[in-house]
Description:
Layout: E1 11-14, E2 18-25, E3 30-35, H1 45-85
Antiparallel strand pairs: 1-2, 2-3
Amino acid sequence: MLMMSRRAGETILIGDDIEVVIAHIGRSRVKVGIRAPRETAVIAQEVRLVRDENKAAANGAAAAAEFSNLIARFAAGFSSSTKARR
């Protein structure tokens, strides 16, 4: 990891088309501006983690629904086979 010291208003260039600007330095926070092409995703790590958790939960919900459908079909088949034995 490259570590750099910058003052407010100074810029860091990444490649030819990404620019990171130190907009403001406070007591415990730094405001950073990022200029990048539209096709380059710029997202906070916390947002990505929440997005990935939501996707995993949605996939889990789909799997739970599939499991519930399987149980329902099994139960329906079981009840019809017990009726045939009577």
